């Protein structure tokens, strides 16, 4: 039985139709399996990554990579007027991403080079589509994106080499610096879209963000990533993190997100960005006091910032690029509330109730799965439905 050609052409007509559902589905499946591993529900992980490294790798280089490419393949054509891959090329990239997840999970049963090859190919191949559009249009403002993504891809390859013992490097040392590359993207792109979306909907709301804060935040973010990779002293790491937290906090407050708290589909973007300075302050707290592990900061960046911003941006992009109105809906509000409570439960609550760690982890995991599951429920049909034209 041949696939419906109209279904194929619709599904593979835009990056968001492929990679947003893949990201959401992987969020449910990968996080669900991780919770089962931690709680003893399952004991098998046939990967060459240890369980913690597998969890971190797959959420960072698997799930988040899908969101990034889905977003860029949707946004870059708007920025440049040039297409990104569609049709068979887009389908092929989606297949490579899926095979990457499967090969890493079953890595212990496969040739040592195969998961590295498959997973390592995805981002470089996907970046080609971005480069062609940016260079073709002379869009120099965004030339930094392929560079950052290729550096991010390099960290992915190093994590594979470390996990398989091909290089003497602890793979877990890579994951927080890798997350900071994602934080950089959220800081730059979020710094464009959040105030623009806010001003566009509420033109009477006046804001003033000093331009110098962006370069200062970029320097701080990459400085912190370098300090972590080079294992600088706790004082150095803590000092850079405090500075990064202060700069990004001022940026966040300058956008006056509290004024749109009644508008969930917009407010979630402000909330998501607000987790970035909180993450930096948690890095500082961990480094300067030694009273908390860096995992709290890691989850502020990932569950808080990444979780909130990806769900907010994916919801807006899916509605907007499908020709649907950006209305607040009960299910969207439930999604955003769920991810916010999940972030608080994973990044903050264990600091206050360390004896309830396992319970808070299970609760945060359940709320994360609920949020992304509801996203699939709300938008699943839209991904295979042609754009509405009025």
From TrEMBL:
Q: Give the UniProt keywords, A-Z.
A: Membrane, Transmembrane, Transmembrane helix
Q: Which domain of life is it from?
A: Bacteria
Enumerate the transmembrane spans: 18-39, 59-76, 88-106, 112-131, 143-168, 174-190, 211-230, 236-253, 265-285, 297-319, 331-353, 365-384
Pfam families on file = NnrS
The protein depicted here goes by the name NnrS family protein
Q: What is the lineage of its organism?
A: Bacteria, Pseudomonadati, Pseudomonadota, Alphaproteobacteria, Emcibacterales
């Amino acid at each position: 039985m041949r696939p419906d050609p109209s279904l194929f052409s619709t599904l593979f007509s835009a990056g968001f139709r492929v990679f947003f559902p893949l990201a959401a589905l992987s969020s449910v499946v990968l996080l669900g399996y991780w919770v089962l591993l931690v709680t003893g529900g399952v004991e098998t992980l046939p990967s060459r990554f240890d369980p913690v490294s597998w969890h971190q790798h797959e959420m960072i280089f698997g799930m988040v990579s899908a969101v990034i490419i889905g977003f860029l393949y949707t946004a870059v054509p708007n920025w440049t007027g040039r297409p990104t891959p569609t049709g068979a090329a887009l389908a092929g990239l989606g297949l490579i991403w899926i095979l990457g997840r499967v090969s890493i999970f079953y890595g212990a049963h496969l040739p040592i080079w195969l998961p590295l090859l498959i997973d390592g190919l995805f981002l470089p191949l996907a970046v080609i589509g971005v480069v062609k559009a940016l260079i073709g249009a002379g869009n120099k403002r965004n030339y930094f994106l392929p560079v950052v993504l290729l550096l991010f891809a390099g960290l992915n390859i190093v994590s594979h080499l470390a996990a398989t013992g091909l290089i003497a490097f602890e793979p877990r040392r890579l994951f927080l610096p890798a997350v900071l590359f994602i934080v950089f993207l959220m800081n730059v792109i979020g710094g464009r879209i959040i105030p623009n979306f806010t001003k566009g909907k509420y033109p009477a709301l006046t804001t003033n963000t000093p331009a110098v804060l962006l370069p200062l935040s970029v320097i701080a973010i990459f400085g912190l990533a370098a300090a972590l990779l080079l294992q600088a002293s706790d004082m150095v790491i803590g000092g850079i993190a405090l500075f990064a937290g202060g700069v990004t906090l001022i940026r966040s407050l300058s956008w006056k997100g509290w004024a749109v708290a009644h508008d969930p589909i917009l407010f979630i973007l402000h909330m998501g960005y607000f987790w970035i300075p909180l993450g930096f302050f948690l890095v500082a707290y961990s480094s300067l006091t030694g009273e908390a592990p860096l995992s709290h900061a890691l989850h502020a960046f990932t569950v808080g910032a990444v979780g909130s911003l990806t769900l907010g941006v994916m919801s807006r992009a899916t509605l907007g690029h499908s020709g649907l109105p950006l209305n607040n809906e009960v299910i969207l509000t439930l999604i955003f509330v769920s991810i916010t409570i999940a972030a608080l439960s994973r990044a903050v609550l264990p600091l206050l109730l360390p004896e309830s760690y396992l319970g808070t982890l299970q609760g945060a995991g359940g709320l994360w799965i609920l949020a992304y599951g509801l996203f699939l429920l709300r938008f699943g049909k839209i991904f295979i439905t042609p754009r509405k034209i009025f």
